[in-house]
Amino acid sequence: MKSLLIITTIPDTIAAFLLPFARHFRAQGWRVDAMACGISAFDECLEEFDNLYEVELSRNPLQPANLIVAPRQIQEAMEQGRYDIVHVHTPVAALVTRYALRNYRKLGKTKVICTSHGFHFHKDKTAWKNTVFLALEKFGGDWIDYLITINSEDEASAKRHGLTAPEKVRYMPGIGVDLDYYSSHTTSENEVEKLRQELKLSADTKILLSVAEFIPRKHPQDILKAFAKINRSDICLVFAGEGDLFEEMQDLAVELGIQDKIRFLGQRNDIPTLMKAAFVTILASEQEGLPRCIMESFCLETPVIGSNIRGTKDLISPECGILFPLGNVEKLTDAIRYLLDRPQEASAMGKQGRKRMANFDLSHIIKLHENLYAEALSSTK
Question: Which residue, of 6, 250, 324, 366, has the greatest Cβ tally within 10 A?
Fold first, then answer.
Protein backbone atom coordinates (compact mmCIF):
# COMPACT_ATOMS: atom_id res chain seq x y z
CA MET A 1 0.00 0.00 0.00
CA LYS A 2 1.33 3.44 -0.95
CA SER A 3 1.43 5.97 1.85
CA LEU A 4 1.17 9.77 1.96
CA LEU A 5 1.62 12.20 4.85
CA ILE A 6 0.27 15.74 4.40
CA ILE A 7 1.76 18.37 6.73
CA THR A 8 0.66 21.97 7.28
CA THR A 9 1.30 24.47 10.05
CA ILE A 10 -2.37 24.79 11.01
CA PRO A 11 -5.29 22.42 10.31
CA ASP A 12 -7.41 25.16 8.72
CA THR A 13 -5.29 24.82 5.57
CA ILE A 14 -6.07 21.12 5.36
CA ALA A 15 -9.77 21.56 6.12
CA ALA A 16 -10.18 24.37 3.59
CA PHE A 17 -8.10 23.07 0.68
CA LEU A 18 -6.70 19.56 0.98
CA LEU A 19 -9.52 17.21 1.98
CA PRO A 20 -10.40 16.39 -1.68
CA PHE A 21 -6.84 15.15 -2.19
CA ALA A 22 -7.10 12.89 0.86
CA ARG A 23 -10.40 11.47 -0.38
CA HIS A 24 -9.04 10.84 -3.85
CA PHE A 25 -5.87 9.03 -2.88
CA ARG A 26 -7.58 6.98 -0.18
CA ALA A 27 -10.08 5.90 -2.83
CA GLN A 28 -7.08 4.81 -4.92
CA GLY A 29 -5.97 2.54 -2.09
CA TRP A 30 -3.40 4.82 -0.46
CA ARG A 31 -2.97 5.27 3.27
CA VAL A 32 -3.26 9.02 3.77
CA ASP A 33 -2.37 10.68 7.09
CA ALA A 34 -2.18 14.32 8.15
CA MET A 35 -0.17 16.41 10.59
CA ALA A 36 -0.78 19.95 11.90
CA CYS A 37 -0.93 21.89 15.16
CA GLY A 38 -4.37 21.27 16.67
CA ILE A 39 -5.60 18.94 13.96
CA SER A 40 -7.19 16.41 16.34
CA ALA A 41 -9.91 18.96 17.16
CA PHE A 42 -11.11 19.06 13.54
CA ASP A 43 -13.87 16.49 13.09
CA GLU A 44 -13.71 16.67 9.30
CA CYS A 45 -10.04 15.70 9.41
CA LEU A 46 -10.79 12.78 11.73
CA GLU A 47 -13.20 11.47 9.10
CA GLU A 48 -11.06 12.03 6.02
CA PHE A 49 -7.64 10.68 7.10
CA ASP A 50 -6.43 7.31 8.28
CA ASN A 51 -4.29 8.80 11.07
CA LEU A 52 -3.69 12.26 12.50
CA TYR A 53 -0.57 13.62 14.21
CA GLU A 54 -0.20 16.68 16.39
CA VAL A 55 2.89 18.84 15.88
CA GLU A 56 4.05 21.96 17.70
CA LEU A 57 4.28 24.27 14.71
CA SER A 58 3.54 27.99 14.79
CA ARG A 59 2.89 30.43 11.94
CA ASN A 60 5.39 32.67 13.72
CA PRO A 61 8.76 31.63 12.20
CA LEU A 62 10.57 32.85 15.32
CA GLN A 63 8.73 30.47 17.66
CA PRO A 64 11.45 28.21 19.22
CA ALA A 65 9.26 25.09 19.19
CA ASN A 66 9.36 25.14 15.39
CA LEU A 67 12.97 23.95 15.40
CA ILE A 68 13.27 22.42 18.88
CA VAL A 69 10.16 20.25 19.26
CA ALA A 70 8.51 19.92 15.83
CA PRO A 71 11.40 18.18 13.97
CA ARG A 72 11.43 15.35 16.49
CA GLN A 73 7.65 14.95 16.23
CA ILE A 74 7.87 14.81 12.44
CA GLN A 75 10.63 12.21 12.63
CA GLU A 76 8.56 10.11 15.04
CA ALA A 77 5.62 10.22 12.63
CA MET A 78 7.95 9.16 9.83
CA GLU A 79 9.25 6.22 11.84
CA GLN A 80 5.70 5.15 12.60
CA GLY A 81 4.23 5.64 9.15
CA ARG A 82 7.18 4.91 6.84
CA TYR A 83 5.71 7.21 4.21
CA ASP A 84 6.49 6.95 0.52
CA ILE A 85 5.66 10.65 0.05
CA VAL A 86 5.53 13.55 2.49
CA HIS A 87 3.73 16.52 0.97
CA VAL A 88 4.06 19.71 2.99
CA HIS A 89 2.22 23.02 2.58
CA THR A 90 2.69 26.51 4.12
CA PRO A 91 6.10 28.17 4.69
CA VAL A 92 6.98 27.30 8.30
CA ALA A 93 5.88 23.68 7.98
CA ALA A 94 7.79 23.38 4.71
CA LEU A 95 11.10 24.56 6.17
CA VAL A 96 10.81 22.53 9.37
CA THR A 97 9.74 19.36 7.57
CA ARG A 98 12.59 19.58 5.08
CA TYR A 99 15.04 20.00 7.95
CA ALA A 100 13.53 17.12 9.94
CA LEU A 101 13.53 14.66 7.03
CA ARG A 102 16.79 15.61 5.32
CA ASN A 103 18.51 12.36 6.34
CA TYR A 104 15.51 10.20 5.43
CA ARG A 105 15.73 11.57 1.90
CA LYS A 106 19.43 10.75 1.66
CA LEU A 107 18.63 7.16 2.60
CA GLY A 108 15.90 7.00 -0.02
CA LYS A 109 13.22 6.39 2.59
CA THR A 110 10.79 9.06 1.41
CA LYS A 111 10.14 11.73 -1.20
CA VAL A 112 9.51 15.25 0.10
CA ILE A 113 7.29 17.56 -1.94
CA CYS A 114 6.59 21.19 -0.97
CA THR A 115 3.80 23.35 -2.32
CA SER A 116 4.47 27.06 -1.95
CA HIS A 117 1.25 29.00 -1.45
CA GLY A 118 3.13 32.22 -2.13
CA PHE A 119 6.74 32.89 -1.18
CA HIS A 120 7.20 35.35 1.66
CA PHE A 121 9.68 37.27 -0.46
CA HIS A 122 8.15 39.35 -3.26
CA LYS A 123 8.43 42.79 -4.82
CA ASP A 124 5.87 44.38 -2.48
CA LYS A 125 7.83 43.46 0.69
CA THR A 126 10.66 45.44 2.27
CA ALA A 127 14.22 44.64 1.20
CA TRP A 128 15.38 43.24 4.55
CA LYS A 129 12.38 40.91 4.83
CA ASN A 130 12.97 39.70 1.28
CA THR A 131 16.60 38.98 2.15
CA VAL A 132 15.66 36.94 5.22
CA PHE A 133 12.86 34.91 3.60
CA LEU A 134 14.87 34.28 0.44
CA ALA A 135 17.77 32.99 2.52
CA LEU A 136 15.45 30.64 4.41
CA GLU A 137 14.03 29.23 1.17
CA LYS A 138 17.53 28.65 -0.19
CA PHE A 139 18.57 27.07 3.11
CA GLY A 140 16.17 24.18 2.59
CA GLY A 141 16.59 23.90 -1.18
CA ASP A 142 18.72 20.75 -1.09
CA TRP A 143 16.29 18.92 1.21
CA ILE A 144 13.46 18.61 -1.28
CA ASP A 145 12.50 16.42 -4.22
CA TYR A 146 9.97 18.75 -5.83
CA LEU A 147 8.89 22.36 -5.28
CA ILE A 148 5.39 23.19 -6.54
CA THR A 149 4.63 26.84 -7.27
CA ILE A 150 1.08 28.00 -7.94
CA ASN A 151 1.60 31.26 -9.80
CA SER A 152 3.86 32.39 -12.62
CA GLU A 153 5.86 34.93 -10.58
CA ASP A 154 6.84 32.36 -7.95
CA GLU A 155 7.78 29.84 -10.62
CA ALA A 156 10.11 32.39 -12.22
CA SER A 157 11.51 33.44 -8.82
CA ALA A 158 12.24 29.86 -7.77
CA LYS A 159 14.28 29.29 -10.92
CA ARG A 160 15.93 32.72 -10.98
CA HIS A 161 17.11 32.51 -7.37
CA GLY A 162 18.04 28.84 -7.58
CA LEU A 163 15.86 27.79 -4.65
CA THR A 164 16.36 24.21 -5.79
CA ALA A 165 17.43 22.48 -9.00
CA PRO A 166 15.39 23.79 -11.97
CA GLU A 167 14.07 20.33 -12.84
CA LYS A 168 12.59 20.07 -9.34
CA VAL A 169 10.43 23.18 -9.78
CA ARG A 170 6.94 22.39 -11.02
CA TYR A 171 4.11 24.81 -11.76
CA MET A 172 0.51 23.89 -10.98
CA PRO A 173 -2.37 26.36 -11.38
CA GLY A 174 -3.36 26.46 -7.72
CA ILE A 175 -4.79 23.66 -5.62
CA GLY A 176 -8.06 23.45 -7.46
CA VAL A 177 -11.59 24.75 -7.28
CA ASP A 178 -14.65 22.50 -7.45
CA LEU A 179 -16.51 23.76 -10.51
CA ASP A 180 -19.65 21.84 -9.55
CA TYR A 181 -19.82 23.16 -5.98
CA TYR A 182 -19.05 26.75 -6.99
CA SER A 183 -21.61 26.97 -9.75
CA SER A 184 -24.54 29.22 -10.56
CA HIS A 185 -26.38 26.08 -11.67
CA THR A 186 -26.18 24.38 -8.26
CA THR A 187 -26.71 27.52 -6.16
CA SER A 188 -30.40 28.38 -6.26
CA GLU A 189 -32.09 31.76 -6.50
CA ASN A 190 -34.12 30.73 -3.48
CA GLU A 191 -30.92 30.52 -1.41
CA VAL A 192 -29.91 33.96 -2.66
CA GLU A 193 -33.30 35.37 -1.68
CA LYS A 194 -33.04 33.89 1.82
CA LEU A 195 -29.59 35.43 2.17
CA ARG A 196 -30.88 38.85 1.19
CA GLN A 197 -33.65 38.52 3.75
CA GLU A 198 -31.10 37.59 6.41
CA LEU A 199 -29.01 40.63 5.52
CA LYS A 200 -32.11 42.83 5.32
CA LEU A 201 -31.32 43.88 1.76
CA SER A 202 -33.73 44.52 -1.09
CA ALA A 203 -33.40 42.81 -4.44
CA ASP A 204 -32.11 46.07 -5.93
CA THR A 205 -29.23 46.46 -3.50
CA LYS A 206 -25.86 45.64 -5.06
CA ILE A 207 -23.63 43.59 -2.77
CA LEU A 208 -19.90 44.34 -2.75
CA LEU A 209 -18.31 41.24 -1.22
CA SER A 210 -15.02 40.58 0.54
CA VAL A 211 -14.17 36.99 1.51
CA ALA A 212 -10.91 37.09 3.45
CA GLU A 213 -9.31 36.91 6.89
CA PHE A 214 -9.21 40.13 8.88
CA ILE A 215 -5.43 40.30 8.97
CA PRO A 216 -3.04 43.09 7.96
CA ARG A 217 -1.93 41.63 4.64
CA LYS A 218 -5.53 41.48 3.38
CA HIS A 219 -5.94 45.31 3.72
CA PRO A 220 -9.63 45.35 4.73
CA GLN A 221 -9.24 49.02 5.69
CA ASP A 222 -8.63 49.91 2.03
CA ILE A 223 -11.97 48.40 1.05
CA LEU A 224 -13.80 50.26 3.82
CA LYS A 225 -12.19 53.57 2.91
CA ALA A 226 -12.98 53.15 -0.78
CA PHE A 227 -16.57 52.20 -0.02
CA ALA A 228 -16.96 55.29 2.18
CA LYS A 229 -16.12 57.51 -0.80
CA ILE A 230 -19.05 56.19 -2.84
CA ASN A 231 -22.25 58.02 -2.00
CA ARG A 232 -24.95 55.63 -3.20
CA SER A 233 -27.97 54.26 -1.42
CA ASP A 234 -28.24 51.06 -3.47
CA ILE A 235 -25.04 49.33 -2.33
CA CYS A 236 -23.95 47.29 0.69
CA LEU A 237 -20.48 46.08 1.62
CA VAL A 238 -20.43 42.52 3.00
CA PHE A 239 -17.43 40.96 4.76
CA ALA A 240 -17.18 37.18 5.27
CA GLY A 241 -14.30 36.15 7.49
CA GLU A 242 -12.70 36.41 10.90
CA GLY A 243 -9.35 37.58 12.22
CA ASP A 244 -7.42 39.85 14.53
CA LEU A 245 -8.60 43.06 12.81
CA PHE A 246 -12.31 42.19 12.96
CA GLU A 247 -13.29 44.57 15.78
CA GLU A 248 -10.90 47.26 14.59
CA MET A 249 -12.58 47.26 11.17
CA GLN A 250 -16.01 47.48 12.82
CA ASP A 251 -14.76 50.55 14.68
CA LEU A 252 -13.40 52.01 11.43
CA ALA A 253 -16.80 51.58 9.77
CA VAL A 254 -18.36 53.60 12.60
CA GLU A 255 -15.63 56.22 12.31
CA LEU A 256 -16.30 56.53 8.58
CA GLY A 257 -20.04 56.77 9.19
CA ILE A 258 -20.91 53.79 7.01
CA GLN A 259 -21.76 51.15 9.65
CA ASP A 260 -25.40 50.93 8.51
CA LYS A 261 -24.29 49.93 5.01
CA ILE A 262 -21.81 47.25 6.15
CA ARG A 263 -22.43 43.63 7.13
CA PHE A 264 -19.70 41.87 9.12
CA LEU A 265 -20.76 38.22 8.87
CA GLY A 266 -17.80 36.41 10.42
CA GLN A 267 -17.07 32.85 9.30
CA ARG A 268 -19.59 31.54 6.77
CA ASN A 269 -20.39 28.17 5.25
CA ASP A 270 -22.47 29.53 2.37
CA ILE A 271 -19.75 31.15 0.25
CA PRO A 272 -21.27 30.04 -3.09
CA THR A 273 -24.55 31.75 -2.18
CA LEU A 274 -22.75 34.91 -1.10
CA MET A 275 -20.80 35.01 -4.33
CA LYS A 276 -23.83 34.40 -6.50
CA ALA A 277 -25.64 37.20 -4.70
CA ALA A 278 -22.70 39.59 -5.05
CA PHE A 279 -22.39 42.25 -7.71
CA VAL A 280 -18.60 42.15 -7.39
CA THR A 281 -15.97 40.55 -5.16
CA ILE A 282 -13.08 42.69 -3.89
CA LEU A 283 -9.65 41.48 -2.77
CA ALA A 284 -7.18 44.17 -1.63
CA SER A 285 -4.35 41.89 -0.41
CA GLU A 286 -0.65 42.63 -0.49
CA GLN A 287 0.34 38.95 -0.61
CA GLU A 288 -1.33 35.90 -2.17
CA GLY A 289 -0.35 32.62 -3.74
CA LEU A 290 -3.28 32.06 -6.07
CA PRO A 291 -6.38 33.42 -4.30
CA ARG A 292 -9.21 30.91 -4.16
CA CYS A 293 -11.85 33.58 -3.50
CA ILE A 294 -11.21 35.01 -6.97
CA MET A 295 -11.56 31.62 -8.62
CA GLU A 296 -14.70 30.88 -6.64
CA SER A 297 -16.20 34.22 -7.65
CA PHE A 298 -15.49 33.59 -11.30
CA CYS A 299 -17.12 30.16 -11.02
CA LEU A 300 -20.27 31.96 -9.80
CA GLU A 301 -19.95 34.44 -12.72
CA THR A 302 -19.15 37.34 -10.39
CA PRO A 303 -16.47 39.83 -11.54
CA VAL A 304 -13.55 40.68 -9.28
CA ILE A 305 -11.63 43.83 -8.37
CA GLY A 306 -8.19 42.90 -7.05
CA SER A 307 -4.87 44.48 -6.13
CA ASN A 308 -2.25 44.14 -8.85
CA ILE A 309 -0.06 41.60 -7.06
CA ARG A 310 1.48 38.19 -7.65
CA GLY A 311 -1.13 35.47 -8.01
CA THR A 312 -4.08 37.82 -8.32
CA LYS A 313 -2.85 39.14 -11.66
CA ASP A 314 -2.55 35.53 -12.88
CA LEU A 315 -6.34 35.32 -12.61
CA ILE A 316 -7.76 38.75 -13.42
CA SER A 317 -7.70 40.01 -16.99
CA PRO A 318 -9.54 43.10 -18.34
CA GLU A 319 -12.25 40.78 -19.69
CA CYS A 320 -13.27 39.52 -16.23
CA GLY A 321 -12.28 42.14 -13.68
CA ILE A 322 -10.18 45.14 -12.74
CA LEU A 323 -6.73 45.35 -11.18
CA PHE A 324 -5.77 48.37 -9.07
CA PRO A 325 -2.41 49.38 -7.55
CA LEU A 326 -1.85 47.89 -4.10
CA GLY A 327 -2.88 50.26 -1.32
CA ASN A 328 -4.30 52.88 -3.70
CA VAL A 329 -7.72 53.66 -2.23
CA GLU A 330 -8.53 56.20 -4.95
CA LYS A 331 -7.96 53.69 -7.74
CA LEU A 332 -9.97 51.07 -5.87
CA THR A 333 -12.81 53.59 -5.51
CA ASP A 334 -12.63 54.33 -9.24
CA ALA A 335 -12.81 50.61 -10.07
CA ILE A 336 -15.89 50.11 -7.90
CA ARG A 337 -17.60 53.15 -9.42
CA TYR A 338 -16.75 51.98 -12.92
CA LEU A 339 -18.56 48.67 -12.47
CA LEU A 340 -21.50 50.17 -10.57
CA ASP A 341 -22.08 52.53 -13.49
CA ARG A 342 -21.82 49.68 -16.03
CA PRO A 343 -23.84 46.74 -14.70
CA GLN A 344 -24.11 45.05 -18.08
CA GLU A 345 -20.35 45.15 -18.55
CA ALA A 346 -19.90 43.80 -15.01
CA SER A 347 -22.22 40.89 -15.83
CA ALA A 348 -20.29 40.14 -19.02
CA MET A 349 -17.04 40.16 -17.02
CA GLY A 350 -18.46 37.57 -14.65
CA LYS A 351 -19.36 35.25 -17.52
CA GLN A 352 -15.87 35.57 -18.97
CA GLY A 353 -14.42 34.76 -15.57
CA ARG A 354 -16.31 31.48 -15.52
CA LYS A 355 -14.78 30.51 -18.86
CA ARG A 356 -11.27 31.08 -17.51
CA MET A 357 -11.71 28.52 -14.74
CA ALA A 358 -11.48 25.29 -16.75
CA ASN A 359 -7.71 25.04 -16.22
CA PHE A 360 -8.14 25.51 -12.47
CA ASP A 361 -10.67 22.70 -12.02
CA LEU A 362 -10.01 20.55 -8.94
CA SER A 363 -10.09 17.30 -10.92
CA HIS A 364 -7.36 18.66 -13.21
CA ILE A 365 -5.15 19.64 -10.26
CA ILE A 366 -5.63 16.24 -8.60
CA LYS A 367 -4.55 14.59 -11.86
CA LEU A 368 -1.39 16.72 -11.87
CA HIS A 369 -0.67 15.49 -8.32
CA GLU A 370 -1.22 11.90 -9.42
CA ASN A 371 1.30 12.31 -12.21
CA LEU A 372 3.88 13.95 -9.95
CA TYR A 373 3.51 11.29 -7.25
CA ALA A 374 3.94 8.57 -9.88
CA GLU A 375 7.09 10.28 -11.15
CA ALA A 376 8.44 10.62 -7.61
CA LEU A 377 7.83 6.97 -6.78
CA SER A 378 9.26 5.73 -10.06
CA SER A 379 12.56 7.44 -9.27
CA THR A 380 12.96 5.34 -6.11
CA LYS A 381 12.97 2.05 -7.97
Answer: 6
